[in-house]
Structure formats: structure tokens, C-alpha cells
Amino acid sequence: MTLLDRYLYAVQSDLPKGQPAGDIIAEIGDDLQSQMEDREATLGRPLTEDEQAAIIKTYGHPRRIAARYAGAQYLIGPELLPFYWSTLRLVVTIVIAIELLGGAVSALVSHNGILFFNALYAAFHSLIWIFSIVTIVFVLNERVPNNGNVIGTWMFRWDPRRLPEPRALPPVPRSSSLAEFIANFLALLVLLDAGGSHRIPLDTLLANALRNMHATLTPAWHPAYIGTVAGTALLSFAAITVFVRPRLTVLHEVVRAMSSAATMTGVALTLQAGPWIRPTDGPLNGAALYILVSAIVILGFQWTNSVRILLRKPGNHTPTQPRSMSATG
Q1: pTM of the full structure
Q2: Where are the chain's structural domains?
Q3: HEC string of 52-82?
Q4: CA distance 75 to 142
Q5: Closest to 30 (Cα-Cα) out of 285, 328, 326, 327
Q6: Which residues partner with 216 through β-bridges?
């Protein structure tokens, strides 16, 4: 894939929704190819990669070119707006990831789940401060003279050779991975508390329900418990990783497959080790059997889906191609 293809793909990825991407990309591609062909005719030889990169860089950063097709902006102009959003996402990602990881580690080390909820509360307040500070910086930068426009100057310090290749799997939305991390880590806290002091209300409720029915869980549940804890921990790891790096989609699906396999193995071992509840002559063992079988079926579907995604053939993510380069290109 040529530098021009990668540049056009980057521009197309940042175009506002509703714009005729095919026509826009074809027009930009034709313009750049004409410039390259004119340069080749002047030099009497094909352009080197460095020379192609210089022409593309002079044309403009992909986000800046795509922003020209956006509607009117007010506080922050269309050329800086894409960089505003990308900077805001970057700072939010770093700060929120650090706060949530800190709260998670503290909760696990101290066996106190309240510390994780405190981290969630702190992360919410951080969002307000981050949004305010980044917005003020860009609004002020928009209104300084050109020679003092630090962000505008930084936009030109990019290299077309570092543009990413199109990927077979789309990046994971950060909102999805953040919700996945919070849900799985809360589930992990509940699971870890289930074998301890029962300080979390859900664990207390389940323990009291079994006590009122004069029933107890047998050691047969240990494999399922260990497998579920391992699987939930893996899902939490994958979620926070792709929250920081959304393009690590392959890692995300690999870990999801490993999580499903670990949990399914534990559940299968528990299924073979029954009975699961004492006394064994009541209906609770029948209910436990139904739950275990259903869990294996669901986990099997999840594992199959992850494997299917990983084996998916790369799609055609190359943007609309402009007219062919000359024989000297």
C-alpha cells in the first residue's frame, strides 16, 4: 500500500458523516497524483518515498483536510477542532485509566471494594476538570496570532510514513471498553468477596438465602469459582487495555476467547463433580444443573464468536482509488 493510499484512508476516516466520501477522496487523490506526476516529469525519474512524503505533508494533515468539509464552528475553528477532540480523548483516557487502575489495585490489596467506588467518583470529577482545561487551552490558542499558535504549528510535525495501515478489525469504542471494565471489575469484587467476609450486599443476600433454606454449597463449585474469577480478571484486563489503545482489537478478542475458555473449563469440571448443594435430595441440585449447563452453552457461543472474529478475513478498507499513477510512478 502506497503512502498516498494510506493518506487517503486517513482523510476518509476523519471526514464528517454525511459527506460524499468517494467524491472527496477521488478529488484529493487526483490532485496529489497530479502534483507527484508533475514533480516526476521535472526530475525525469520516479519519486522516492521521502519526496512523496514531502508532497503529501505539504498538502496538509489528514485531520486538517477532513475538517474543511465540516460545518461552521464557533469557539474552536474547523482546522483545530479535530485536534481538540483527539487531545481531549487522549487526556481523558490517560487520567481515567490511571485513576481506575489505582482504585482497582487498592481495592484488591486492601480487600475493600469501597476504594474502587471512590475511584469512580474521582474519575467523574476529573472529567469536568479535563474538559474545562483542554477547552480553555484550545480556545485561547485559536485566538493568538499565527506565530504564537503552538497547536497549529504542532499540526505540521507529522510524517505520512507513520500513518497506520487499514485494519481488518475496527477499533473498540472507548465508551464500550470503559463500561466493560467497570462491570467486570465489579463482578470480580463480588466473586472475591463471596469467599470471604460477605461485605458486599449481593454476597450477603445470596448467603442469607442459602442459610434460610438450610442449604450449603459443596466443594464441587471450586473449579467453577476459580475459572470464573480467572475469566473475569482476564476480561477486566482486556477492557482497560483497549480503553487505552482501542486499536488492540485482536488482543481484546484473544483475551475474551481465553476468558470464555477458562470459565467454561471450570464450569465443566464443576458439572462433573456434583452434587453441588447439600442436602442432595431437594430441587436445588436440579436448578444448579440447569444453571451449569446453560453457562456452558452461553460460554461456548462467546468463545466461538471471538474465534470467528479473529479468523475474519481483512476487509477492503482501501479508500476509493483515484486514476492510476503514470508508468514512472
Answers
A1: 0.58
A2: 81-155, 174-310
A3: HHHHHHHHCCHHHHHHCCCCCCCCCCCCCHH
A4: 8
A5: 326
A6: 278
The owner of cell 453457562 is 295
SS (H, E, C) 236-296: HHHHHHHHHCCCCHHHHHHHHHHHHHHHHHHHHHHHHCCCCEECCCCCHHHHHHHHHHHHH
Q: Nearest Cα to 322, choosing from 6, 20, 25? A: 25
Non-local CB neighbours of 15 within 8 Å, separated by 6+ positions? 21, 24, 66, 69
pLDDT tens string, the chain, 329 residues long: the values are: 688 888 888 888 888 776 778 888 888 889 999 999 998 898 889 888 888 888 888 888 888 788 777 655 456 776 677 778 878 888 888 888 888 888 888 887 777 777 888 888 888 888 888 888 888 887 777 666 554 455 555 555 667 777 766 666 778 888 888 888 889 888 888 787 765 554 555 556 666 676 777 777 788 888 888 899 899 999 998 898 888 888 888 888 899 999 999 999 999 999 888 788 887 777 878 888 888 999 999 999 989 988 888 887 655 444 555 554 443 34
DSSP result, 171-216: PPPHHHHHHHHHHHHHHHHHHHHHTTT--SHHHHHHHHHHHHTT-E
